[in-house]
Amino acid sequence: MNKIYLILIISSIFLLSSCAEKIDGTSEESLKSSIESIKNSLPDDKKNEFEDALQTIMFQNLDFSDLMKGEEGADAVIKDVKSKLNGLTADEIIGEGKKIQAEIEAKKKEQAKIEITELYENKSKAESNKEKLKGFKVIKSRFYKRKKGSYYVTYEPIIELTVKNGTDKAISRAYFEGTLASPNRSVPWLKDEFNYSISGGLEPNEEVTWSLAPNMFSDWGEVKAPKDAILTVDVLQLDDAEGNEMYSVKIFGEEEEERLNELLKKYPEFSQN
């Protein structure tokens, strides 16, 4: 029993001395050889930890502008790496790597919290604006292509809208999303945004009909929808008489919803639902 106990003690001392081997950062050659020596002395599962930690330490606060300064910059980077690693054991390298990674994760989490809060604020504001935008009514909407020219015939896309400004302010520009779809079809022929700068503005309670002509080479000019296709139009944003954004749902759309969901998958503790 005493012999077995002695063998275990000797084995433990050997393992501890192996792990206590330190990196020699006095030169590039000694740095490389000591790193390789330490790595080879480690068990396979710890080798990966060691290599990951080395990369984390070496890239911490790395100024890539130094690398653009040629040989002088590269020398400065190498000097900094040697200084960071000199005298550290494998366990110290791994520990330092974990510490740095934890700090990085903490910063990422804090930034995610700020972004999530902002996205929720924009979502809430967009929902409030959506209600306010209902005051600007699209009474009638129609899409067709008008024949143009006699010798060289082209077909000009036309979006015809009748709108009424039910808000209490004059509107200088309106932003819309048009959906061109056929009955009993789940996929529309076209879904696209457009806007119109209103000459002279649109006063409260004023009603007007516009015939808007999108670019012939835009999606509106290219779309080949059947005659039964119906155009529905939603109001996305209104600008006041000075051209400032008054109400908008554009601040929170599909992309923002996807981003919020993506962040909440990683940081569910910041959910406000």
Task: Describe the protein.
- This protein has 273 residues and is of the alpha+beta class.
- The chain is built from 8 helices and 7 strands; from the N terminus they run H-H-H-H-H-H-E-E-E-E-E-H-E-E-H.
- The protein has a 4-stranded antiparallel sheet. Strands 1-2-5 form a 3-stranded antiparallel sheet, with no helix packed on it.
- A hairpin with a 4-residue loop joins strand 6 and strand 7.
- Helix 3 packs across helix 6.
- The protein is elongated.
- About 5% of the residues have low confidence.
Unreliable residue stretches: 5-19
Bulk shape: elongated
Radius of gyration computed on alpha carbons? 33 Å
Number of discrete helical segments: 8
How many β-strand runs? 7
Using brief descriptors, characterize the structure shown:
273 residues, three-stranded antiparallel β-sheet, four-stranded antiparallel β-sheet, alpha+beta
Topology readout:
Elements: H1 2-19, H2 28-41, H3 44-59, H4 64-67, H5 71-85, H6 90-133, E1 136-148, E2 154-165, E3 171-181, E4 190-202, E5 207-212, H7 219-222, E6 230-240, E7 245-248, H8 254-266
Antiparallel strand pairs: 1-2, 2-5, 3-4, 3-6, 6-7
Helix pairs in contact: 3-6, 6-8
